[in-house]
Amino acid sequence: MTYEPIFATENLAYLAILAVSLIITFLFTPITKILAKKTGAVDVPDHERKFHRAPTPRLGGIAIAIGFIVAALCASLLIFDEIPKIVLVTSVGGLIICAVGVLDDIFNLPAWLKLLAQIAVATLTAFWGGAIEYTTIFGTQHLGDFAIPLTVLWMVLVINSVNLLDGLDGLACGVSFLSAVVLLVISILMGEPVCAVIAAALCGSALGFLPYNANPAAVFMGDCGSMLFGYVLACLSVFGFFKGATLMSAVAPALVFALPLIDSIVVFFKRVSQSKNPFKADRCHLHYKLLDAGFSPAQSVITIYISSAICCVAAIVSLYHKMAAFIIVGVVCLFLLLLKHIDKLAPEVVKGKSKENEVKVSASVEIKPKSGTAKASDVIDEALRESENDEEKRKRDESITEEKVKLSDFDEKSEAAEKTEE
Q: What is the pTM of this model?
């Protein structure tokens, strides 16, 4: 199969779509921050799975949805003189899945209800927009009656993979941006202009939100954002690639989503094997394992960014050399597996990283050098002393509180004894 040139002049239109989506998302994000505070959609840190320093608004996905939908619809009218069915289905389905996410961010919906909503939206998409009718991975296989169920299963899997990846500042947004960029490139190479419009709009919305979501995050995308990203990426794979006439077009999306998919599937079966609720949040995901291995949140995010970028490059390589692409992804997975268990393979390295991270955290606690010529070591020592003083103060306050409780109990007993004697 021959592919279209990637740097053709007409492809500049996709950069314009990306820019429009970016600007709209960037401008609307501060508004969602205000809305989140008024509705109580605020994420409170628990220092177990949520490591941000202060309560953070989590309705940023609304701005992402506005930027994506407006850019995709307007671009379609300008380029195609109509709104293609695929764009309409993706926009309507994205709006519904985003609304479900908003309700979850405000009211904390149960996991089974969110899953039911995801299945409903995926089913609507499969019936309205089209299902994966055949695949060419192992020869041309027509799915027949299994087309709708397999399409729904794939879409729900991708939606939840992106949703579960949203555990550290900027992680899900950055990985979604990388995935959308590669799907944009593949859409152009395969001559799929409608999918390219959708991918370009998604790239812009992710890039427009990332400045607010990068560490330390000022706004979280929430479930309304992560599920929207997952849904649109799933639509791109179903409408643009799984229906392609070549083996490579079916392999590419699987490689793009390789990292979040493998992580979600492994965690799911691990929970089941341990007789745990597979839908209950825990610290089994890759980003938490990297934290446990001694990496800082920023280091964990960068590590996953690089790994995801390599998998995305492998997806493009798969268009020309399928085996080479699988080898690349295999090496990445092996590398991440080693990092995940580095605490067992090299415990001395983990201890060193943990001490380094403790110093960084301590040094970030209100460091106020007395002069501009203060040495870095003096600044860190000052921060450590302040941290120790805060700890001593906390212990002293706890001791005083305990004494007050004891005195209060003694007074109550004395009063009770006096009443009894009377």
A: 0.79
